[in-house]
Amino acid sequence: MREREIEEYLRLGVKRQGGTAFKFKSPGNAGVPDRLIVLPGNRIYFIELKRPGGEARPLQKMQINRLNALGCSVSVIDSKEGVDKFLNDIQST
What we know:
Layout: H1 3-16, E1 20-23, E2 35-39, E3 43-49, H2 58-69, E4 73-77, H3 80-91
Parallel strand pairs: 3-4
Antiparallel strand pairs: 1-2, 2-3
């Protein structure tokens, strides 16, 4: 499975919940998460997607820690099962 397939699976799952999964790029801020998830009720999440078994690089980990310190919710997902868990978790909030 490729990262692109996981990303598409996430995008469609978020859409089914009535939200949007923006492709997130921030010029001058390398290592930011791949997707910005916005759901009804002002629920906002950052997602870093990886191929199965992949891990965030040091710069990505730094950006994740920075966002967490600001009170943002950030997840690293590397599988369709991980997407399902994320979607189930946020559905109950």
